[in-house]
Design brief:
The protein is α/β, with parallel strands linked by helices and 415 residues long. The chain folds into 2 domains: 98 residues, Urease, subunit C, domain 1 (Roll); 306 residues, Alpha-Beta Barrel (TIM Barrel). Helices cover 34% and strands 21% of the residues. The strands form 4 sheets. It has a 7-stranded mixed sheet, with helices on one face. A hairpin with a 2-residue loop joins β2 and β3. α2 crosses α3, α11 crosses α12 and α11 crosses α13. It is globular. The structure holds zinc ion.
Length: 415
């Protein structure tokens, strides 16, 4: 494919006019100026367009796309009244497949071409996610939710998590213990053991006792104060919430910890030591009145940070608007809690939703506009002048109709 447009390679700079050539699912050439046309046609874009990498969402729930926006409840009430009934519908395999496909379509429409997410606790949920990825090959890490207590009995499972790796490595499975309250000691211990064994990518290797490649583990941590209190009551011998996970070997550089709103210093130190990724979900935190995220602590300890929509606690799937939500939360924190609060620049936020999130999820060839990177790209057509405020304008005025083409794995896709 040959794409023409301004090249959004570095969000700190005004993008220069240029072109991108892809072959198969890879970017093979990038050039500035007019595209070299030897009787060749431009497949997408034009001189007035912008080419940028597709967005990556580091936290969402595939079975919750149809219950976005059910407001007025605390986290625990919302789980009981909204989330668990929605997830129970996936007991019907055809519903699971249909809703997964619909979620993928909506991600594609929003420009999200890579993600980390949760399924339900049903075994066939992994199959549904993999099957739908054959039609819309998003890059992803998804896992069957693991939980064996404090939830409706229909949703409780044991650790027989289906682990899967799609043949072309586009969709990997992770271990997803929902959160400490929904998991017994036994389940957490089994999950930790499984996590540290790694991904058994071939039966032969497993038989030979070799370690597999590293799995990802996704879970929630300290989203609300009430949850933290309940975890303390359930696990009185642990120093703190993060300690419960750590005791079972769940914290590593491949651990994605969503929220992290109510942590003590010792927990932050532990997360830094284990090199976990913290996934900030500002929209969800505001929606459920969970708390105000502390970006300064993250920066002081050089903790890796990713950004997630957290559909359905977060109501907005569009990553530029999630980025705006992060900036707004930081501004609010600066005005009301701490005048020294760091407010991310537009360029910082844009980097997070592209290259930053890609790196956090191990998609090291994604989220960037460079030769050798995966051809997962967006072509934008914006209604304003391209100047030094381009990224700020994109983030603060973002609309889906800025996207004129989506290139997924080197193929033009219609949303
Ligand atoms: Zn979540």
């Amino acid at each position: 494919m040959l794409l023409q447009g301004r090249l959004l390679i570095d969000p700190e700079r005004i993008p220069e006019p240029g072109w991108v050539r892809t072959e198969g699912d890879v970017i093979v050439e990038i050039g500035e100026g007019d595209p070299p046309l030897d009787g060749e046609m431009i497949d997408a874009g034009g001189p007035e367009c912008i080419i940028c990498p597709g967005f990556i969402d580091a936290h969402l729930h595939l079975p919750q796309f149809d219950v976005v926006g059910c407001d007025g409840q605390s986290l625990m009430q919302w789980l009981d009244n909204i989330v668990y009934p929605a997830e129970m519908k996936w007991a019907d395999q055809s519903v699971a497949i249909r809703q997964t496909l619909s979620a993928y379509r909506r991600m594609l429409a929003s420009g999200t071409l890579g993600f980390a997410g949760y399924l339900t606790s049903h075994h066939h949920a992994v199959m549904a996610a993999t099957k739908a990825a054959h039609q819309i090959p998003l890059r992803g890490i998804v896992g069957q939710v693991l939980m064996d207590q404090m939830a409706p009995s229909e949703l409780l499972n044991q650790l027989e998590a289906r682990l899967n790796r799609s043949e072309k490595g586009r969709l990997d499975t992770s271990l997803n213990p929902r959160f400490a309250l929904a998991c017994s000691e036994r389940l957490l211990a089994q999950t930790g053991q499984r996590f540290n064994e790694g991904f058994p990518f071939s039966f032969k290797q497993r038989e030979a006792g070799e370690m597999g490649t590293r799995l990802f583990l996704q879970t929630h941590l300290a989203e609300t104060e009430n949850e933290v209190t309940q975890v303390r009551e359930l696990y009185p011998d642990d120093d703190h919430y993060a300690g419960v996970y750590d005791r079972h070997g769940l914290l590593s550089e491949n651990t994605l910890l969503a929220h992290c709103l109510h942590l003590c210093d010792a927990e932050w130190d532990l997360i830094a030591k284990r090199d976990c990724v913290v996934v900030h979900c500002p929209g969800a935190n505001t929606f459920l009145l969970s708390g105000v995220f502390d970006l300064n602590t993250i920066r002081e300890r050089s903790i890796r940070l990713a950004l997630g929509s957290d559909i359905a606690a977060g109501c907005d799937l569009a990553m530029p608007r999630v980025a705006r939500s992060m900036i707004e939360m930081a501004k609010m924190r600066r005005m009301t809690i701490d005048p020294k609060t760091h407010v991310p620049s537009g360029a910082e936020a844009w980097t997070m939703i592209t290259r930053g999130n890609a790196d956090a999820l191990g998609f090291h060839d994604m989220g960037r506009l460079e030769v050798g990177a995966s051809a997962d790209l967006l072509v934008l057509r914006v209604p304003f002048e391209v100047d030094g405020y381009l990224i700020d304008k994109l983030i603060h005025t973002w609309r889906e109709n800025y996207i004129s083409s989506r290139v997924l794995r080197g193929n033009s896709m219609h949303s």
